[in-house]
Amino acid sequence: MYVTTSHTKRFPTHCRFFSQGNCRAGQECHFAHSLPLKGSPHGHSVQHTVLFGDEASLDLEPESIQKAIRDLELDQLDRTYKDQIQKTTLTDACSSFFLDLSCGSVELLIPYHYPDLPCSIRLAPDSALPKQTQQQLYETFESYQHQLKHMTLVQQLDNISSTFTISPPPSSSSPPSS
After folding, report:
1. How far apart are CA 93 and CA 134, in angstroms?
2. Are 142 and 116 in contact (CB under 8 A)?
3. What residue ranges of the chain are covered by domains with CATH 3.10.110.10?
4. What SS3 state is found at 24?
5. Distance, CA of 65 to chain centre
6. The whole model's pTM is what?
7. Residue 105 φ then ψ, to 5°
8. Angle CA 46–58–146, to nearest 5
9. Where are the zinc fingers (C3H1-type) (predicted)?
10. Over the stretch 51-65, which tens digit does the pLDDT of each residue have?
11. Three-state SS for 142?
């Protein structure tokens, strides 16, 4: 009538091989791989190395994580905007991408320590956008930089491309009247 706790275990049995430091089954092991809360089992010290697939070889320093994010976003940017990229300049301090977008020619400056440091954009001096629109474009990019730090570079460029477009100049000829 009542289920006894002897049939249902709340926690799996501890792996004696893991506690000795030599379980060869790894993640396939049916026993719990848990370390003692205090002291060491059997009075001797055992070193446990926890490896998870390819992560075992990764250097997990904060700088390397930021570099991985930066490299990933640079690759995304290169793939997504490869037809619009006119020139790329790589220096120790930053990477510069000269892009021909619907809003005009834009230089995207990506600092070496991105995403810890924000990116910035520069418009070409001969931009067809009015000064007020250029200022709005800068403010739009900056507001997205500061408010939504999780936005990727591609998402930011998509946003400014869709928000600010250069319309062709009106033709000088008037339409025929009927």
Report:
1. 26
2. no
3. 62-163
4. coil
5. 9
6. 0.51
7. -80, 130
8. 125
9. 9-36
10. 555 544 444 455 678
11. helix
Q: Read off the tokens for 8.
A: 């249902």
How far out from the chain centre does Cα 153 lie?
A: 9
Query: Is the model more confident about 16 or about 44?
Result: 16
- Helix (H) or strand (E) holding 120, with range, is strand 120-123
Using DSSP bridges, classify how beta strands 94-101 and 104-111 pair: parallel, antiparallel or unpaired. antiparallel
- Please report, for residues 8, 77, 114, the alpha-carbon distance to residue 3 in angstroms, rounded to integers and kept in the order given: 8, 59, 57
Assigned CATH topology for domain 62-163: Ubiquitin Conjugating Enzyme (3.10.110)
- C-alpha to C-alpha distance for 93 and 6, rounded to whole angstroms: 64
Average pLDDT over residues 15-28: 77
The one-letter code for the residue type at 85 is I
Q: Number of helices (H) and strands (E) in the chain: give both, helices first.
A: 4, 4
* Among 137, 128, 131, residue whose Cα is nearest residue 164: 137
Phi, psi of 95 (to 5 degrees): -115, 135
Considering only CA atoms, give the Rg of the chain. Answer: 29
User: In this predicted model, what pLDDT tens digit does every residue of 65-118 receive, in sequence order?
Assistant: 888 888 888 888 888 888 877 777 777 778 888 877 776 788 888 888 887 788
pLDDT class for 171, splitting at 50, 70, 90?
very low
The residue whose two tokens read 């446990």 is: 48
